[in-house]
Amino acid sequence: MTRIPAVRVELGERSYDVLAGEGAADALLDHVASTDAGRIAVVAAGNVFDIHGEAVIAGLDRRGKRSTVHRLPPGEQGKSLPVVGGIIDEILSEDFERRDLVLGLGGGAATDVAGFVASLLLRGVRWVVLPTSLLGQVDAAVGGKTGVNVRRGKNLVGTFHQPRAVGCDTGFLATLPAREFRAGMAEVVKTAWIGDPSLFEALERDPPKDASHPRLPETIRRCIAVKADIVSQDEREAGRRASLNFGHTLGHAIETESGMSYLHGECVSLGMVAALHISVETGRCEASLLERLLALLEDLGLPVRDPSLDTDAILARTRADKKRREGGDRYQLTRGLGFVSVARDLPAGAPRAAIEFLRR
Length: 360
Ligand SMILES: NC(=O)c1ccc[n+]([C@@H]2O[C@H](COP(=O)([O-])OP(=O)(O)OC[C@H]3O[C@@H](n4cnc5c(N)ncnc54)[C@H](O)[C@@H]3O)[C@@H](O)[C@H]2O)c1
Ligand SMILES: [Zn+2]
Description:
single chain; globular; binds nicotinamide-adenine-dinucleotide; 2 domains; two-stranded antiparallel sheet; Dehydroquinate synthase-like, alpha domain; binds zinc ion; Rossmann fold
């Protein structure tokens, strides 16, 4: 058995381990081998399967587990109801049984689909995850949110379905495109800001800029620990889990408005700068913290300004997003490192001023 450090997500009888570090994939497969699953349906991003799939299938073979492979189109293209329907038909045509397991392999998009498929198959079967992107390892694969995009918007259809185990193998990250790595670092910065101020300070001193950084595994584990703690307290986002949306209100609006030109993490970078700007302007937070955030994001090669942003279009987009949710304004603001909470008394012009700040 491979010994890998684990972070526990405490959810009563649905608790599970997130194994993280070099070799976590083997440890996850050991977990799979310990179950009574007769067969493993591997739901994988096709382009990731081309690189890492054979090793995973061979690992299952060695452990005496039969598998079938179900390939997804890369990225967001795979996150659709028609694709999910096709995958479910494929899996069921291979006599999948209730005790069998779904294994998700790929970035956050693929693992969102794999979990969604598992939650629907035979009214819900067990699933495990091997996230292969940085964003997937620190965010998407932990916490049990699954889903797909529909015409009306991203992630509007989905389920809560916790995995039985997660294996965040840093070995996968060596093949992740550099831009995807940087985008993942935006979620690392976000997570550190929300729940681990000393991690934020460590990032300021010596931030991982690629997968070879010696403290990357520890950085990933600390992010998982923050997310696990939040999910344990608020699995279904009734309260504290919403703090994970720090930087996401304007970030999402920028992402939708920009079409395909920005990655999600790049928009979170811009969105966090905007959230800090609002926090400073409304007297919640010291201006020096905005300077520190800007310096770190720039050091990581993430966007912190964009003169081409369309302020009116972005504001209209946040209002459209807000209408879909119940309750008041959903801006997550901050009083400083380690303190993020929803703002209830936002002056009307504050979001506009924040976008103007990004356009500087
Ligand atoms: N469920 C949640 O709680 C949650 C949280 C955050 C984000 N998400 C979702 O995650 C998705 C974003 O995830 P992402 O940033 O991983 O993007 P992604 O899944 O689209 O991956 C980006 C690209 O990198 C490829 N890739 C992934 N790992 C690779 C590797 N090791 N080597 C080579 N290529 C690799 C992917 O196939 C894809 O082409 C979004 O759909 C978002 O909605 C979900
Ligand atoms: Zn995000």
